[in-house]
TrEMBL record:
Chain ranges of the MmgE/PrpD N-terminal domain: 20-261
Role summary: Involved in the catabolism of short chain fatty acids (SCFA) via the tricarboxylic acid (TCA)(acetyl degradation route) and via the 2-methylcitrate cycle I (propionate degradation route). Catalyzes the dehydration of 2-methylcitrate (2-MC) to yield the cis isomer of 2-methyl-aconitate. Could also catalyze the dehydration of citrate and the hydration of cis-aconitate.
The protein's name in its UniProt record: 2-methylcitrate dehydratase
Phylogenetic lineage: Bacteria, Bacillati, Actinomycetota, Actinomycetes, Mycobacteriales
Similarity remark: Belongs to the PrpD family.
Pathway(s) where this gene product acts: Carbohydrate metabolism; tricarboxylic acid cycle; isocitrate from oxaloacetate: step 1/2; Organic acid metabolism; propanoate degradation
NCBIfam families membership: PrpD_hiGCgrampos
Keyword list, A-Z: Lyase, Tricarboxylic acid cycle
Native organism: Mycobacterium kyorinense
Amino acid sequence: MIMHPVRTRRSADDFPFTEHLAYKIAEVAADPVAVEPQTEAMVLNRIIDDAAVSAAAVLRQPVTVARHQALAHRSRPGATVFGVDGSYSAEWAAWANGVAVRELDFHDTFLAAEYSHPGDNIPPLVAVAQQLGIRGADLIRGIATAYEIQIDLARGICLHEHKIDHVAHLGPSVAAGLGTMLRLDTETIYQAIGQALHLTTATRQSRKGSISSWKAFAPAHAGKVAIEAVDRAMRGERSPAPIYEGEDGVIAWLLSGPEHTYRVPLPAPGEPKRAILDSFTKEHSAEYQSQAPIDLARRLRQRIGDLDQVASIVLHTSHHTHVVIGTGSGDPQKFDPDASRETLDHSLPYIFAVALQDGSWHHEHSYAPERAHRPDTIALWHKISTVEDPEWTRRYHSTDPAEKAFGARAEVTLKSGEVISDELAVADAHPLGARPFGREQYIAKFTELAHGVVKPAEQQRFLTTVDGLADMKPGTLAALNVLVDPQVLEKAPTISSGIFQ
C-alpha cells in the first residue's frame, strides 16, 4: 500500500492533475491486476448477503416506493429490479436495489476513521453490468475495486466529525468500481470520480434526531449519481478539479480545512485489491456498533436473572458508539417508543434492553411498535446509558486486526447493590468472533430471510448462479436477480402516485 498525503492546494500552486487524489484513485481502478481467489469468494458472499437483506426488506414501504419509481423507467437493454421481472434503466434499477439493500441496516460494514457499508457498491455495479452485457469476471473485478476504494477512503478521511455523511466516500468508490468493470482509461475514471464526489457530499442530518427513510435512500442516491457521472465522463465531459484538494474543494470547506493533511492508503501498481476481506457483515439487523452489545446482552441475561431487579446499566464503549448510537448523541428520540425504526436501530439503549429481555434479535419483531411500547421494556430502556471509555476508543481505531474492537463493557448494577460486569470486543459473527461468518453462514442468512418470500427453487437457482459468476458470459447477468413470489409482492403497501408513472 502507498500512503498518499492529501491537503488543500491554492489555485496558483503547481499541482499537476496526476497528483490529485481522484487521479490516484482512478489509477488504482484502471490497474488490471487479477482478483485473488479469497477476494473473489468474499465478493460472492456479499452478493448473497445483499440479496438476503433485500428479500427481508422487499415489503417495506421505502423499498416499495423505490421499486415503483424504478418500474416507471423501462429500458431495453436494461437492468433488473429486485424481486420482479422486466428490464429497466440501470440508474433506476440501482436506485431501487440500493434502497432494498440498505433499508434494514443488515448488510456489511467497515469502520475506521469513517463509517461505511461497502455492500452499497454492489447494486449500481450489477445494474450497469446487466445493461451493458458485462461478463461476470469483470463484475467481480469492479466490485473488488469499489470495496477497496471506499474502505481506503474510510481509513484515511473522517467525514462524520464535520457532519458529512459517509456516502461521500461511496460516490467515488462506485465510480471507480464502474471504471474497473468497464475497463475505462484513467482519465475518464478520474473525471467520473470528481463529479461523483461533488454531488454526494450531504450532511449527517439524515442520521441524527428523528431518522427518516432517507437513511436507506442515501446510498442508493450516491450509486445513481455515480452511474450518471461515469456516463457523462464516457461522453468526454470534465468535472470540478481538484475536487478533494481545491481551494474551494471538499477538504477546504467541508472537512478539516486548508491546514490539515489527510493520509489515504491505496494499493501500489500491481498490488491486488484485498480490502473487502477487512470488512464484515451483520448477524443482526441493527447499526454495526450494536452487534457485539446484542451478543453481550444475550450472554448476560442468564447472569442477571430477574431484570426487574436492575437499577442501572452503563455501557462503556468507544467514542463513535457513544455519540452515534448511545446517550452521547444527546438525542431524546433514542428513548421514544414512537420513534421510527430507523431511529431505534440507532439507539443502543433500546437495542440492549430488547436483547436482554428476549435473548435474541429479529429484523421485524424487535422493532414492532407493540414491542417498543412494552412497559417493562420502556422501564429497562431508560435505565441504560453509555459512556466513552478511552481504551475502547483506542481499540476501535487500532490498525491491528487482533486488537481492533467494536464492543463494550457492561456494568449492571442491581437494586441490591451487586454489580455484574462483562464485556465483548467483537460480535459473534465477526471473523475473530465466536461464530465467524463463512459461505455456509451467508447462505443460511439468505435462506432464512428469503423463507416465505422467495420460493425454494428460485433460492437455489440464485445461489447456483452466484457460485458460477466468474464464468458467466456477456448478457447473462440478469440471472443475478431474485424473483419474489408474486403473492408476496401483492402484500406490499399501497403507494401514492408520483411524477414517474
